[in-house]
Every structure is written in C-alpha cells, then in structure tokens.
Design a protein that fits this description.
The strands form two sheets. Strands 1, 2, 3, 4, 5, 6, 7 and 8 form an eight-stranded antiparallel β-sheet that branches. This protein is of the alpha+beta class and 185 residues long. The protein has a single domain, classed as START domain (Alpha-D-Glucose-1,6-Bisphosphate, Chain A, domain 4). Helix 1 crosses helix 2. It is built from four helices and ten strands; from the N terminus they run E-H-H-E-E-E-E-E-E-E-H-H-E-E. The C terminus is likely disordered.
Length: 185
C-alpha cells in the first residue's frame, strides 16, 4: 500500500476554544453552519462518544441531496476530535463520493482546537485516506487544491457563525435553512 502525506487545513477563529469545540460537537450548532451555503438540513443525528456517529443529510437548492457520516474514534474535550469521515446514504451506510467514484471511501480526520490564550482558537484539520487503494490515494493527492478551497469556505462559514452564536443556544424550531453563512430558523 502506498503512503501519502496528510492534507492539513488550518485557520485562526475569533472565538474561545470551548465555543469552537461546541460548534463541532453539538448538533444544534452543527445544523447552523456545517454544509454548503443555501442547503437545507434534512437530518442531523449525533451520538458523541467513541464509536458513536454524526449522520447528516443536506438538500441543495437544485433538489439534489448529500449525505455524510462521521464515526468518532477519539474525543478529547475541548482539544481534539478523531473520526472517520465518509459519504453515506439516508440509512447511514458508507457510499462512494457521488461525483468522484475513486475518492477514498473513508477519511481519517483529526480536528485539533488550540486555545491561543486571547479569545482565539487555532483549528487544524488533518485528513488522510483510510484503508484506501492506490487509485483512491491518487485521487486524494490530486485533489489538494480543491480541498484547500473547500476548507477555506467552510472556515469562513464557521467564523461567520461563531460571531453570532449564543450560549446557551436555543433549539431550532422547524426546518433549518442555510442562507449565506448563517443557518436560519
């Protein structure tokens, strides 16, 4: 099996470590920022424990849907999450990437939340293909520029959300829609 360097994406967020970690580990927060702009959250079920998962579904404005799943391997509040990230179906089964069939079925993902001591947090994501064949590794390696763009967009959305986040966060009423970087009720 080939070896490959992980992909890293890093940003500094203008929010305390505890809030950034909560935004990644509380389903009410996740529903408000995770996913493409203008998507509608169809499902968001979180079982935050080693062996538990976050299973979510999003509907895009064109009517297409995307399902994803994170299976948690390690949780160290408020410093680190390690999980397997994959595309999924509505039942939670792992599926190939809908647009890139040779993309790795699962990504080993590590998110670290570093308290910088001034009310800011450095968030670092490391991605590595998990149990992937040579074709999946090659697809991953060729997609680094696209991953940089995707994570930059996600970080911008998260930063905008964190600027408006309330603690404690009231539960959403009815469907949650995304308009711009902020999830609306």
């Amino acid at each position: 099996m080939s070896t490959i360097a992980p992909f890293f994406a890093t940003c500094v967020l203008n929010a305390p470590q505890s809030l950034v970690f909560l935004a990644w580990t509380d389903v009410t927060h996740l529903k408000r920022w995770l996913g493409p702009v203008a998507s509608t959250v169809l499902k968001a079920e979180l079982d935050l424990r080693p062996g538990g998962s976050y299973h979510y579904g999003l509907q895009n404005p064109d009517g297409s849907t995307m399902w994803g799943k994170q299976v948690y391997l390690e949780i160290v509040p408020p410093q680190k999450l390690v999980y397997l990230q994959s595309f999924s179906d509505a039942s939670g089964g792992v599926t190939p990437h809908p647009l890139a069939p040779t993309w790795p079925l699962q990504m080993l993902s590590t998110a670290t939340f570093d308290d910088l001591g001034d009310g800011t947090t450095r968030l670092t994501i490391a991605w590595l293909p998990h149990e992937a064949d040579a074709a999946a590794i090659a697809t991953f390696d060729a997609a680094r520029a696209g991953m940089e763009q995707g994570f930059a967009g996600m970080f911008a959305t998260l930063e905008a959300y964190l600027a408006t986040a309330q603690i404690p966060l009231p539960p959403p009423q009815g469907p949650v829609y995304r308009s711009g970087p902020i999830l609306l009720q």
